[in-house]
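Moderator note: this is an archived Q&A kept for reference. The question asked for a predicted structure of one protein chain; the sequence and the answer are reproduced below.
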Amino acid sequence: MKRELTAILLLLIFLPSANAYQFEQNNVLIKINPNEELLSITYYLAFGHDEFVINRREYVNDVEMWFGKYRDHEAVKMLKDYFKDATTIPERDYKLFVLDAYLLQFSEPPEMRRIYTNWQDLELDKIVNVLRNFSRDTNFMEFFKAHEDCYSKDLQLYSSAITFLPPDEFMKPYMNLTKVRFEFHFPYLVCIHGHSFREEVNETKIYGSGGIPPLVRRNPPKTYWGFLRAKDTIFGLPLNSVYLNNSEFDKLWVLEFIYHELGHDITTEKLDEYYGYKVKPLQYLESIIEEDMPYLAIYDIHFWGDTGMIYESFADAWAYFALSKINKDYAELSLQMEKAWGEFWIEEIISLYEKYSKIAIEENEPLDEYILNILTELSEKVPNEKAKEIYEKEVPVTPLRALEDVVREGEVLIVYGTQNPDKNGVEYDKETAKIIRNYLQTFYSQWPGEIKIEIKADINLTQEDLKKDIILVRGPLSNKIVDQLDEEFPLRFVFSNGSWILVKNAEFENVRTFLITNQSIKETKFIQKSYYSSVSLIMSIRNPYREDNYIVWIAGVDRYRTRKYKNPTYYLVSYQIYDGTNIEDGFYVYS
């Protein structure tokens, strides 16, 4: 209650500036940026409602009415030309955030005067010029200011998130804040990949971010607010409708994004400085992830260099360092998902941040002066010869790892049940299996090799089939294979007092468990808790018939709840349970 009251009082200090689409306090600016929205609207005119456009129906209708007649404008044509070589969604994602970052160097439309001069690109300047013309030809700022009420709803969450952990206060012990500002710029219509924002003008350094946080395969949304804004900007697949209404989680989600980007701001310059003799020799860390999850290295842009994940881990560790000061449980949940993404060394960086932040304060030096020390000790704590062993001890078993294993095996079986006495139920489950197959076909579309995705009835599985990577659909009443295996699972359905309930296997050990409700997020013990109704789950384990393969189980108390997890492709948890009012995430490893 005390922290909530403090947040409310701080929010009152965030008085609106002259423009109602931004808030400013001291040296912190939060803004729905007109440049980003100009890009977003032009992008929409060029490509329609694609994988990046957020479903804001009334707003889109207004965009159509105001700008629809300008689809042949030079700016729209040039944007189409800019993206013509981006043949995959990740490539478009990359080019979109590069252009977004470039536009943040200019003042607001219609003038779009260059403010920052460190980064200049003649081709991107041409796009800026036609966007400037587009803003004048369409009276863009008139439209933008007429929709400030739309933007203010998102802006209110962003600004209230900042009050939980104001960056000008939190960062003060770790960096010289003389002539420093913080700016966080957000688009509204298009989901633009979040990125750091580092500029300098008139001897004032500016740190912050551009773009927005929902990058599904890093930290999937768990609330309705996040669900409405998140997009799968890697494959364009729909998200599962699994969410709660927890406003604190939303704020922490935004804060994690902000402090992740600030983590880049305070480390990238030094990482670049020491790249040749300290960062590049650590590329074996990334190589180990790519060996276990080779497809991830193709579709996720963070793996497109030799050491991109090392830079990301420094930013992720800084986000943990910051958020753990206000909500340790949220920070720990996010940490487990970062491990599941492959960052098996991240806890070492966190511990080194803790160590050197204290030394930095004692010696009155900025923290970045100790990046060399952190890199040196990291290489000692996670040496090449022990890295694979540490990876297996730290990275949990997840549906992501299971689906990654499929590209090495070249095939996956989706197994539906035939045991349900209700034959309509059998047909429904078979249709669920087909939906999953269709999503997997899209998921594997960027893999250069052939992937065989086969649907089989449980009664048709052979002993050899049981050793493969398998996705099981439905519970033990319906699916013979689930009934055969579920004592190996950490979770299983049992029939009690006339209904099916989900219970935990008490013999399953070493599970990190997090319970998210509409009010809170807490790390809990893996206790003998039961879920009674409306429950759905997705889970992954090592295949007991061949332990270098995996089993993913998708189930619910009935056929309809089972379909809640029809898209299994973006889960960085060992299991997730959803009952409409709670989400439980569990993590485990196989040593």
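Archived answer notes: The chain is about 45% helix and 15% strand.
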